[in-house]
Write a structure and sequence with these properties.
With 387 residues, this protein is α/β, with parallel strands linked by helices. It folds into two domains: 3-56 and 372-381, Urease, subunit C, domain 1 (Roll), CATH 2.30.40; 59-357, TIM Barrel (Alpha-Beta Barrel). The chain has ten helices and 19 strands. Strands 5-8-9-10-11-12-13-14 form an eight-stranded parallel β-sheet, sandwiched between helices. Strands 3-2-1-4-18-19 form a six-stranded mixed β-sheet, with no helix packed on it. Strands 15-16-17 form a three-stranded antiparallel β-sheet, with no helix packed on it. Strand 18 and strand 19 (377-381) form a beta hairpin. Helix 2 runs parallel beside helix 3 and helix 5 (208-216) packs across helix 6 (238-245). It is globular.
């Protein structure tokens, strides 16, 4: 691996903004960060001068189904390689590959493929996002709040089925989305938590009390808050009320301006604070692609003007890229550093990897983005590799 010294206008670290910053990258990690005038250029190192740019950590997407015309449910090395290369172009340097409800056998086949790919994913020389593990979105979801997940393939939570999924994942299971009101949900939540998985409340018609029971069992994450959830009202706060008022819960947000109204986004951000919101894409194979027809798992979807819907007109994931999510959140008046946190440090903390990912700090992976004044990504490093 080469040694590179970045010279940037400012760098966003967990504790401060470092102006006129230097970031030394060696063997795919950040060796040192500080003011540029504190550095000597190491022998044999190259220097990248970008004094008009801001350096931030690479984005971490804990909820993404596909990109570049390919779907994680394909489970093939080709598909996963295309997905990870495409999202890296928009600044996403780590992902949790997210399933969609399918038959048990089809889910296992896809998960086995992803698990097989993960150990060999760095064989190429092109910058690509790292697959950190697998997010199971389905089949333990509410029929009433299923979104586009096929009704016929939804199942009541089953410890036996969950165990088959986890065996197929070969230690790469990271997140389980579950509707806590379903019969059998609590034993599944307990089983997932005992194995260190993040349990997320989602696609749910849960009451406030049912949601709070799940939170008491360790479900401390909420899948795309507001979307596919029992609506909030002043006499029936439901699952949204529990998410908004439970400090221990981190809430995903699709900040594309389509899935959630700007006012509702502001309510969520004010209620949870910048420490407990995780921006996601919920990206589909249509991400980074033109309008047209695509497959989301086994679901036919059509994209018109960048909006992805199924045959019944229901929203079916998004075409959002996380660089655009950053600009959208900053456009709401959220401070830049807070917005960056929601895309980097917060998802890293959810996954328990905040000392290796999601921050510009010594010893962390060199997943680094350069942004111009318009907050557009101008260059990407993934584990020290850039094109």
């Amino acid at each position: 691996m080469t040694t590179t010294l970045l010279h940037v206008g400012k760098a966003i670290t967990p504790n401060a903004e470092v102006h006129d910053a230097g970031i030394l990258i060696r063997d795919g990690e950040i060796e040192r960060i500080g003011r540029r005038d504190e550095f000597e250029l190491p022998a044999g190192a190259s220097e990248v001068r970008a004094e008009d740019s801001a350096a931030i950590p690479g984005f971490i997407d804990v909820h993404i189904h596909g990109a570049g015309g390919r779907d994680v449910m394909e489970g093939s090395s080709e598909a996963l390689g295309i997905i990870t290369q495409r999202v890296a172009q928009f600044g996403t340097t780590s992902i949790v590959a997210t399933t969609v409800t399918a038959s048990t056998d089809d889910t296992i086949r896809a998960v086995e493929g992803i698990a097989k790919y993960i150990p060999q994913q760095f064989d190429g020389n092109n910058p690509c996002a790292e697959i950190l593990g697998i997010h199971f979105e389905g089949p333990f979801l509410s029929k009433e709040r299923r979104g586009v997940h096929p009704t016929s393939l939804l199942q009541l939570p089953s410890a036996e089925v969950l165990q088959r999924f986890l065996q197929a994942a070969s230690g790469n299971a990271r997140i389980l989305t579950i509707a806590p009101e379903l019969v059998g949900a609590m034993p599944c939540i307990d089983a997932a938590r005992s194995l260190g998985m993040v349990v997320s409340i989602g696609h749910t018609d849960a009451t406030y009390e049912q949601a709070r029971a799940a939170i008491a069992h360790g479900a401390h994450h909420a899948t795309h808050a507001y979307n596919a959830m029992r609506p909030f009202s002043h006499r029936d706060p439901g699952v949204i009320g529990a998410v908004l008022t439970s400090e221990e819960v981190n809430a995903e947000l699709i900040a594309d301006g389509i899935h959630v109204d700007e006012i509702a986004m502001k309510v969520l951000l004010q209620a949870k604070g910048p420490e407990h919101v995780v921006l996601i894409s919920d990206g589909t194979p249509a991400t980074g692609m033109p309008d047209g027809k695509y497959k989301l798992g086994g679901i036919d979807v059509t994209v018109v003007n960048g909006v992805c819907r199924d045959a019944d007109g229901k929203l079916a994931g998004s075409t959002l890229t996380l660089d655009r999510a950053l600009r959208n959140i900053v456009g709401l008046g959220i401070p830049f550093a807070h917005a960056v946190r929601m895309l980097t440090l917060n998802p890293a903390k959810v996954l328990g990897i905040e000392f290796k990912k999601g921050a510009l700090r010594t010893g962390a992976d060199a997943d680094i983005l350069l942004l111009n004044e318009a907050l557009q990504v101008t260059r990407v490093w993934t584990r020290g590799l850039s094109n």
